[in-house]
Specification:
The protein is an all-beta fold and about 140 residues long. It has one helix at about 90, and strands at about 1-5, 15-20, 30-35, 40, 55-60, 65-75, 85, 95-100, 105-110, 115-120, 125, 135-140.
Length: about 140
């Protein structure tokens, strides 16, 4: 269920969902962060959209290798507001690289503890950084 709140103008809800791009990929879910003025309450089992756009692909290994998952948004490609995701428990401890799609060319990663964050241009392979297998939040946008 998505609840929309008005704040001077109607903001698009950041309803997003994740589809595993590899059949053997572990089940993953993304809890979208609401855009300004919008509160979203979604369960992984009910994440469906009438139309969706690939925003980025997550990879379990550096260099865009290993298990992958396509991350989709239901409100088109990235704009300057972008989309935010909390990875599933598995992806939090297995993500090592990301490729953007469409206009999604920037990403901000926050570690699981919430003590470190950094912004990168996409694509990015972060296997040698503090974020390797340690991603608590992902924000992607066009910048």
């Amino acid at each position: 269920m998505i609840e929309r709140k008005k704040t001077g103008r109607i903001a698009a809800a950041a309803a997003c969902f994740l589809l595993a791009a590899v059949a053997a990929a572990p089940t993953a879910s993304a809890a979208p962060a609401p855009r300004a003025g919008v509160h979203s309450s979604l369960r992984a089992s009910s994440l469906r959209a009438a139309s969706s756009t690939l925003l980025m692909t997550w990879y379990s290994d550096a260099g865009w290798r290993g298990t992958s998952a396509g991350i989709y948004g239901s409100y088109g490609t990235c704009d300057t507001a972008g989309y935010g995701f909390t990875p599933s428990d598995w992806w939090k401890t297995h993500m090592s690289s990301i490729r953007g799609a469409g206009q999604c060319n920037k990403v901000r990663l926050t570690n699981i503890a919430g003590t470190a964050s950094a912004t990168y241009s996409l694509p990015v392979s972060f296997g040698s950084t503090v974020f390797n297998d340690n991603v608590g939040y992902v924000k992607v946008w066009h910048g």
